[in-house]
Amino acid sequence: MDGSTSWTRVPVERGAVEIHNPRAGTGVSLRAAPTDTDGNTLTQTVIDAYRTR
Length: 53
What we know:
The chain is an all-beta fold and 53 residues long.
């Protein structure tokens, strides 16, 4: 586990993403950074959102 120091971009397709989990027992953190058509942005991060098994 790298303590959320590295991030992997995943494409949003039809409103969803596919996450390839790391090895068992690893925490997975999630970050979303959407931008609307007016250019407004938001960044939301959830550290250790879930653990793999």
